[in-house]
Specification:
two-stranded antiparallel ribbon, about 160 residues
Length: about 160
């Protein structure tokens, strides 16, 4: 059984984001259950998905006033760099590196989704963002200046 399974506690009530997150969870489960022969291919599929996943969220942040310098975007970049390093290690036959990363990624993802992604989803709903078209239906609700930090009131940066 996979360490991380989709549940309503991960739902952010933004269908496009929730769908992407469900796909991420499913791909991570494939990594966790893959035998050594299929592990690198499963990890590569997860990395490829994550490139698109994070890129889409980063685009949404840029287009709606979340600054590209915010810690959400930085966290995406760092996690993706680590995942890519896992792929390099896996290609060298170091499967345990991928297995350890998968376990840690499952823990990270829950925290990330319930904090940073939740703040982003709230922001996107607040400006009437249509993720399918990229349209902002309430441009008057866009922040006057880019949001820095993580976008939450508790973030000091």
């Amino acid at each position: 059984m996979a360490v991380l399974q989709w549940s309503e506690s991960l739902s952010l009530e933004l269908p496009e984001m929730d769908q992407t997150h469900q796909e991420f969870v499913a791909l991570l489960a494939r990594v966790e259950t893959a035998d050594d022969t299929h592990l690198v291919a499963a990890w590569r599929a997860l990395v490829d998905h994550t490139v698109d996943h994070f890129g889409r969220e980063d685009d949404w942040m840029r287009s709606t006033g979340f600054s590209s310098t915010n810690c959400h975007t930085v966290q995406h970049r760092v996690v993706l760099e680590v995942m890519c390093e896992g792929l390099v290690q896996g290609l060298k036959g170091q499967n345990e590196a991928i297995r350890q990363m998968a376990r840690e990624l499952a823990v990270w993802f829950v925290q990330h989704a319930q904090t940073m992604d939740a703040a982003l989803a709230l922001h996107l709903r607040g400006v009437g963002f249509d993720a399918a078209s990229g349209e902002v239906r309430m441009p008057q609700a866009l922040p006057a200046a880019p949001v820095h930090g993580c976008g939450s009131a508790a973030c000091a940066t």
